[in-house]
């Protein structure tokens, strides 16, 4: 039967449920075929192509066509040959010829034409088309062409050929392994349902795994609860997926419930379950569950492989189950496995955490370990205890067995230097040099620490000069130690040189050490130098504290370089360094000094919103700036926050606030502050007195003052005329200021007090007399 080529124009489409964004993009590197047939270049020589046509004319048969197609690397030529054969009389394509051309198209990523040929093969009812489709799926999966696999599956499901459940499971497994989208896995599952095949537990495990990967946790748990309705019983793999996925999403309690369910239904865990789940519970520090599973594995007939044993030993040692770890180690030896170096290190670390140093060295010697790293780990742990005798004995024990290396010597030298035993370190170093040892950068780093800790910073600098001449770099600890030592001795110039050298080599300085360097540099007046160091810190990866920026900003403020200060603020914002109280205080003082009222108030409000409060000096600076422009009322909304912190406001700030608010017409608010001030026992200053008394006419005040000063008494008429003023002032004064002895002792400060007392003006006289009698 002749092939109808016209039908190739109508390609079946896979539903939108399947991801198709990559169907045209993939390219087969092996065949080096372009992915778009429209742009195919005929890479074969025309004479060669004609020779193949001539060969097929003389011997056209499916087997010969397959042979020619296999020997034709160019896709365009292969398609031409295939179509030429289709037009020949008495020739019919077979499933094998279709397989060859479909595979070539799929491997080139030409899924549209590939799908068309698949449909042609099915429509032609070629013998064995089902097996060809299965072979195509297998080939595409092996070559990671999963989008092409889904197209072939779709065509297969529309045909009369029904694949087994194993085919669907294989495709789902491949999709999960390649981390494809959930909709692709769901597509395969739906195709299986459409074909009338019931899922098995492997299918459901793939579906559960995919649901968890897609973040659909509740849906996955619902599917698990409905397994029995689909005739499936959960197995070890099911619980492995459920437990590990729930733990990964911090739903630990649910994972433990599922583990109990696993035990209740009698599901026997397999090796994969133990390998994956035991470390999870160890990482969660749920040692009880981890050990229960470990003992179950030991009690079963399951024997973990070498890698699994090493992983379990690591977990056991981390949580100090040394007995179980060493037993498992012995089992590894009995099985003929050679443990890796990391396994020895795990066990030695476990012994060291328990301070069982003798047991650790016995373990190494009994196992005839001759590798240096486990011994170095043990030596370092002994040195950490600060026990010189034990460390010395340990080192020479290693030395006697010819196990020591340069790293071993450096560990011991570092130990001596960190304990300020620089003289012992130098003597030991001399002996080691005579034996075999060549000092390196780690040696010099240790010696620099030793000299810094005994105050020999000049020797430390000389050592650093050698380090620099050899183009070495210091380790982070010795680097920080040298910088801090130089800063403490106010040798910031040399400290800056050390920092510059290390920064150029990409070494970051500890934040605390860099903070000290900047503070000392600014304190010495070299603010510009500190700014340059800050720029180097950014490129070397040194993380800066907020206090580091503050030191530079304060230095710039003192120099009057406000523009540079604002640039520093911008840098803080760019690197995400949050402002603190000191930052805001510096900014407020800077803006106030420039008489920038709006900016001062903005920074003040931001400071309060962040939960910070200004110091007294900053507040005074702000108030004086605001008062100069009669803008004190701008911070009225913030007064409650200020007055709630008694340590913030002192008598000076109270006077400035009262003065400013009264002068700006906010008299009620000024009076409230006056009450609070008097409750603290503070007396308003002369300026505030004058302002308050200025609420009556100047003439009235002068009459009253003259009457008191000249006669010592006050005419009743005058007092009565002044009554509104004094009643207003005294009512506010006596409410909180119950120490009126202060007022009455200094009549020049408050002359109206005696006038009120002499004239017996009600109701203030009675209140004053009562207050005086109480105190």
UniProtKB/TrEMBL annotation:
UniProt keyword terms in alphabetical order: Repeat
Cytoplasm found in the keyword field: no
Keyword Electron transport: no
Protein name, entry field: Pentatricopeptide repeat-containing protein
Lineage, top ranks: Eukaryota, Viridiplantae, Streptophyta, Embryophyta, Tracheophyta
Matches recorded under PANTHER family: MEMBRANE-ASSOCIATED SALT-INDUCIBLE PROTEIN-LIKE, OS03G0201400 PROTEIN
Alphabetized InterPro entries for the sequence: PPR-containing_protein, PPR_rpt, TPR-like_helical_dom_sf
PPR repeats by residue range: 164-199, 200-234, 235-269, 305-339, 371-405, 440-474, 475-509, 580-614, 650-684
Family, as annotated: Belongs to the PPR family. P subfamily.
Pfam families, sorted: PPR, PPR_2
Origin: domain of life: Eukaryota
